[in-house]
Design brief:
Blueprint (H helix, E strand, L loop, with lengths): L2 H13 L4 E5 L6 E2 L12 E11 L2 H5 L10 E10 L1 H4 L13 E5 L6 E4 L6 E5 L5 E5 L5 E5 L10 E5 L5 E8 L3 E4 L7 E7 L6 H13 L5 E5 H7 L12 E5 L1
Parallel strand pairs: 1-3, 2-3, 3-4, 4-5, 5-7, 6-8, 7-9, 8-10, 9-11, 10-12, 11-13, 13-14, 14-15
């Protein structure tokens, strides 16, 4: 199917008030998503797995032309975001007020990822190669970040505010220069497995400690031996509600 034909098919579906759109494109030439998709107020589930260009405009961020107010589930894989300076404000309440589940995987053009949709319950970030991550959500229950921090320079940082988080996974990421994670008092399970070279700076050791401290009220913890080697000599931890502990290689 040609790109123009696919473009027409997607536009036709939008005109039919489709509620769920799953689009997988194997073409290496890329595909420009029709603008009418972002004005489709009937969409509740949007899953894109393709080399699709997403032009993030100021009008979309303000909600002036945004019809995705009913979207509950959004999954993006291999999407090319244009204009990185605007992308950091993409996943907010003004753009996606009803969003409950967000998955972002292997997308390009985004180094600073900010997520603050008020109704989010599930967030998965995988293979993103970002340098900054800012997540906040009172209703967030499950957070998984994996293979997304590869080269953490002095400007790298992560900030998470999710007081009702129940499941936390931080896997195969480098340790950032700064780590501002508030405690998770409702946490049930936590899995921490980071890349820990021997020459970590003092600031990054503090970041590692903050990662562990955020899970201090967890019931079930899986943590890598390498990460324990870095964080535990620096400070003592108390896990008052811990029932299960597993140390991975």
């Amino acid at each position: 199917m040609s790109s123009s034909c696919l473009h027409d098919c997607v536009s036709w579906l939008v005109n039919q008030k489709v509620e769920e759109l799953v689009l997988k494109v194997g073409s290496s030439g890329g595909f420009d998503l029709p603008l009418c998709v972002f004005q489709c107020d009937s969409l509740r589930c949007l899953k894109l797995d393709a080399h699709i260009s997403w032009f993030v405009s100021p009008s979309f961020l303000s909600g002036a032309t945004n019809g995705l107010g009913s979207l509950h589930t959004l999954s993006l894989a291999h999407v090319d975001f244009l204009f990185n300076c605007l992308c950091k404000d993409l996943f907010t309440g003004s753009s996606f007020p009803c969003l409950e589940s967000l998955t972002i995987q292997s997308c390009n053009g985004m180094t600073h990822l900010k997520i603050s949709c008020p109704n989010l319950k599930v967030v998965h970030v995988n293979s993103m190669n970002i340098n900054r991550l800012d997540i906040s959500g009172m209703r967030l229950e499950s957070l998984r970040v994996s293979f997304s921090f590869f080269r953490c320079d002095s400007e790298s940082w992560v900030s998470v505010f999710a007081p009702n988080l129940k499941t936390f996974s931080w896997l195969a990421n480098c340790i950032t220069e700064k780590c501002l994670i508030h405690g998770f008092p409702a946490l049930k399970t936590s899995h921490i497995n980071c890349r820990c070279p021997d020459d970590l700076s003092v600031a990054k050791i503090h970041s590692a400690v903050n990662l562990v401290w955020a899970s201090s009220q967890v019931q079930s913890l899986v943590i890598s031996r390498d990460f324990l080697r870095v964080s535990c000599p620096s400070v003592s931890f108390f896990f008052f509600f811990l029932e299960n502990l597993s140390v991975s290689v």
